[in-house]
Amino acid sequence: MLKKTILLLAITLNFATSVFANNLKLNHLDASATDTSTHRMTFTIDLRQDNGWRNAVSHDAVWVFMKYSTDGGQTWHHASMGGAGVNPAGFAATQGFEVFVPQDMKGFFFRRTDLMSGNVNATGVRFVWNYAQDGVSDDTAKAANTITKVFGIEMVYIPTGAFFAGDGSSATPFRFKRGSADDSPWYISSENAITTANVPSGGFYYQATGATNENANGDAFLIPNSFPKGYNAFYLMKYELTEGQWVSFFNTLSPAAKLNRDITSSVQGGKASSGAVDRNTIAWDAAHPATPATTARPSRAMSYVSWPDVAAFADWAGLRPMTELEFEKAARGVDVAPVTGEFAWGTNTYNAAAADEIYPPDQDENGSEAVLNGTANLNRNALGWTSGDGRNGGLAQGQKGPLRAGIFAVNSTSRAASGAGYFGNMELSGNLAEPAVTIGRPEGRQFLGTHGDGELSTAASFEGNATNVDWPGIDPSDARKGVDKTAGIGYRGGDFSSANASDFQISSRSFAAKDPDSLGLNQRHDASAGIFYGARLARTVF
Q1: What per-residue string of b and e applies to 499-528 under the rule 16 or more CB within 10 Å gives b?
Q2: Is 325 helix (H, G, I), strand (E, B) or coil?
Q3: Which residues contact 121 (CB under 8 A, 6 or more apart)?
Q4: Smallest Cα–Cα separation from 498: which of 403, 415, 429?
């Protein structure tokens, strides 16, 4: 008897207009064959994505991974793929596409092989689960109470190549520069170790942000070979983490893990409500933990997440944190000369969306909002999206907050008009502040770039924490507790509430080493610090 499965719509973004890439769906997951001699099970799935693309420089891809439960859905574990490389044995994709399985076999990338763009409607994409690798027997794999779910996250390929970090402007806060008297940017031309030095010019000079326990101006320290500097190729989430993605993750957790990841509580600056707060619509009843969490706006960028929350999602999904150098490369591009004071779309000007520009007019906001005039490229909604004006009512409640992921990318818009980074990542400037591993603290520089293995901590009181010992925030007193702190993480790109326009600049490092723990701030949100936290994650190409 073949393994019974349930199917799950992947992370789905329902856009009102045609955009560069959106509306990802995974359908019809089916176990097509089981080989008990190799202890592998073959699956097929249909994948749909609007406006996928590949050009001579980069491409988008879908990171697909599977979870399985052997007890009817009470507990979930990460499924290991049955091969590695491009189209390994048993894996196959529709003509014009390929399946790439990384060496750790925690999932696979589905991506184009042809230089073209357009909607993707791939049927019968085939992949293999090595259930023996996960400790599952033949009988258990085929049992009726063994079920599976698949998940997909859109990513953008950031190619190998040198890039500039810093924009050369003395007005950009705490930028990377070459010396105490030299505003020239750093040039990252390899993954070799970097040694900073207190020199007037021609070196790698560290400019401190003033954060607690951060290295000082001109400090000499080593950024080791193992720290991902952005030169080598990597994938980066196309969009910020969405509420739909968060709910899909949260609903696979154990009851104890859910309590630690509950952003509807007041703990660590959570929103203290299951209602709409600052446009976050996540709802969950902690008194009945078996009840699934829900969201009224699955395509809205996810706010009120602490670094431990984000790290848990990264570990669960087989992804990893991005570094602050990788952030600058993704925004600026390979060997692209910096523009003074530039934002993620490559110019030093922006057009913030106003409350009266939200579409549809004269209707309640329904989660598929778009910018009416098509010219805005930044969410800096200082006016708030008001509820009584006939344009954006309903759940908005007159609140400021994050907007739908990819909102500024409409059909045939330019990079600047859509607010896209050089390679196509959306909302690198504005919307929500994104965590990035800082080079300004040793807890950040210890990062080795390891990926999550899909399994979270089960240690008492620390259930649901990420377990990678090199990640920022790992508990130094007992690594078994996982990532429950924030030392070594910082935030880049600014957010909707940022008071200073410079916060949105690619090279601004105002919050690059701001550790919420050491500052006595709340990890999920702190109004006094002026930061609303979101997330974007990466994966090294190997």
Answers
A1: eebbbbbbbbbbbbbbbbbbeebbbbbbee
A2: helix
A3: 46, 48
A4: 429
Q: Which residue has the tokens 């020239």?
A: 184
C-beta separation of 26 from 42 below 8 A: no
**How far is Cα 474 from Cα 485, in angstroms, rounded to an integer?**
6
Which range has highest mean pLDDT (399-413, 415-429, 517-531)?
Answer: 415-429
Pull the structure tokens for residue 290.
């078996």
Cβ-proximal residues to 478 (8 Å cutoff; 6+ apart), any chain: none
Helices (H), 205-300: 243-250, 255-260
Residue 387 lies in a domain: no
Looking at the DSSP bridge assignments, the partners of residue 27 are 46
Query: Each residue of 51-98: pLDDT tens digit?
Result: 899 999 999 999 999 999 999 999 999 999 999 999 999 999 999 999
For residue 535, being part of any structural domain is answered with no
Residue 406 near residue 239 (C-beta atoms within 8 A): yes
| Residues in contact with 166: Cβ distance below 8 Å, sequence separation at least 6, in sequence order | 172, 175, 176, 177, 183, 184, 185, 186, 328, 338, 507
Query: Which structural domain range is residue 32 located in?
Result: 22-156
Q: How far is it, in rounded angstroms, from Cα 131 to Cα 202?
A: 54
Q: How many domains does the chain have?
A: 1
Task: Determine, yes or no, domain membership for 33.
Answer: yes
Dig out the tokens for 306 from the structure.
Answer: 């602490």
Rounded CA separation 66/365 (Å)? 33
Cβ of 232: how many Cβ atoms within 10 Å? 17
CA 243, distance to chain mean position in Å, is 12
Per-residue pLDDT of 183-198, as tens digits, reads: 999 999 999 999 999 9
Q: Does residue 50 lie within any of the structural domains?
A: yes
Distance CA 149, CA 93 (A): 19
Residues 427 and 377: beta-carbon distance below 8 Å: no
Q: How open is the CA angle 308-312-315, to the nearest 5 degrees?
A: 135
* 169 within 8 A of 41, measured Cβ to Cβ: no
What span, in angstroms and rounded, lies between the C-alpha atoms of 103 and 125?
20
CB burial string 92-105: b at 16+ within 10 A, e below: bbeeebbbbbbebb
